[in-house]
Structures are given as structure tokens and as C-alpha cells.
Amino acid sequence: MKTEDRNFLGEKSLHAGRKTLRPVEARPCSVEWRVYRCGCQGATAVRWGCERVDCRECRGSVSKRRAAAAWERFQHRPRGSAVVYTVFTVPPRLRARMKIPGNWDELRRRAWAMLKRKFGALYGCEASHPFGENPKRDGFHPHLNFLWVPGPQGSPFVDVARLRAAWASLLDTGLAVDVYSQYSREVGKIRHWARYVTRPWCGFSWWCGNVKWYGPRAFINRKSDDGETWKCETCKTEYKYLGKIEGLSGFLYERCRDYFGVEIGKIIDRGKFAGNLAGSG
Ligand SMILES: [Zn+2]
Ligand SMILES: [Zn+2]
User: Fold this and answer.
1) From the CA of 92, how far away is ligand 1's center (Å)?
2) 274 band by pLDDT with thresholds 50, 70 and 90
3) Judging by DSSP bridges, how do beta strands 264-269 and 43-48 pair with one another?
4) From the CA of 244, how far away is ligand 1's center (Å)?
5) Class of domain 77-220
6) Residue 265 CA to ligand 2 centre (angstroms)
7) What residue spans define the domains of the chain?
């Protein structure tokens, strides 16, 4: 391995081990209510939070939107192809240096290049998780989670021994490494992976970053034609936007009546409509 390569895993991160991975407090959620009209009698008020990845109050909504966006993009994969779920973990002795986001980004970039070159990946996404199933016991346990689609030269079946060897060589380590890979063409399973992999880690967005997309734009920018319409589940007509009400929910009903001259029929959370808003954020 070249000197510059060693640097990325070593020197500049020597002190990283002394720092703990701490969550940051999100700014208070700024809620507003967006009021919509459909064919039903009352208007619909949608709770529109700050939508920041670190906001605990918006967690459900952010999570649904991210999952929907991922699912949306995998629906556009070439006919008959599968989605592969590959996880790369880091041996305990190498974990401390991964607390530096720059090191982790570099590793992620190289891991995708490796999936592309050696395993025929066409396009996909990655969302990093800072902890495993048992954060209390294991502490910082960073892993890269790739969901990807093989191109014509790739196969969804990944030989795990080969994958492990490639990953160990990328980490430049003789230590035992843990990797995991499986694939599916089942809608239910792919949707579950999309949700699980892209779930937000409140307070750790400074380390995780956003969900990263790789591959030709043609696959990752596509949206369904109905991606932006919002239809009422009850009357099936399209929602028409009336305007917004800022601030807390006190006097919401009264304010809606004053501003828009309509009564609120129902209040819903933005996340509930995530499926219809795929790709919007
Ligand atoms: Zn919020
Ligand atoms: Zn309606």
C-alpha cells in the first residue's frame, strides 16, 4: 500500500481514540401546519416539522421519506435484477480512527469503487450506522450498509470469502473482518431493507452524513410520474394547497378558520404521505 493510503487510516487520526462519539443536540423543532383542501368536507392540516435528520420529533417523518426515496430508485432497476444488501464492519482495533468523518468517507468511497470494479455493481446507495444492535455492550461499531444493483457483468450472489478478502485488503489489515451480503427480488424484503438501512441516527448526522447515492444519474434521479401528487385517501381527489400556519398547535382550528375560511377536518403527520412524496427530499 502507498504512503498516502496509510495516512488515511493512520497518522491524522491517531488521537481519535480519545474522543467519544457524542450526539449533538438538534435545534428545537420548528413546526408549521400546511393546510390542504380536497373533496372532503373539512380541510387537512399536515404537521410539517423541521425535517432535520437530528430532530427526534421529526424522526418518523424523515425516516419514511428516506425509505421511500430509496425504494423509489430501486424500482427503476433493470428488469429482473435483484437488490443486494452488503454490510462491511470494522475490526475493533481499527474502529477508533473511523470516528473521524473524513476517514470514514474515504473508506466508503473506496468500498463503493471495490463493489463496482470487483463485483460488478451498477448503482446503489450507502447509509452508515455508528452502532450495532447492542450499543451499550459494543460501543462505537461503525458499519457501511450498501444497497446496490448489479450490472450486466455482476451477479447478485456475492462470494462472501472473496468479499471478506477484498475488504481486508482495502483496510490493509491481517485482522479477521466481518462482512455480510444477501440479495432479493422480493418487494417486501427490499422495502424493509430500504427502511432499515436509511433510518436516521438522531444526533449523529455529523458522523453519518446523508444517504449517499452512487452510479449513473439515469438510475438515481428518476422519479415516477405520480411522484409529486398528493391525493386524499378518503375522496381520492388531489390536495390543493391553501397555505401555512406557523407555530404551535394552540388555536390551530381558530386560525385555520380565520385565515382560510375552512374548518379543519383532520390532522396528519407529513410522514404519513411519504410514499406519495418519494424523491422530494
Ligand atoms: Zn423537527
Ligand atoms: Zn378528501
Assistant:
1) 34
2) very low
3) parallel
4) 16
5) alpha beta
6) 9
7) 32-55+229-277, 77-220
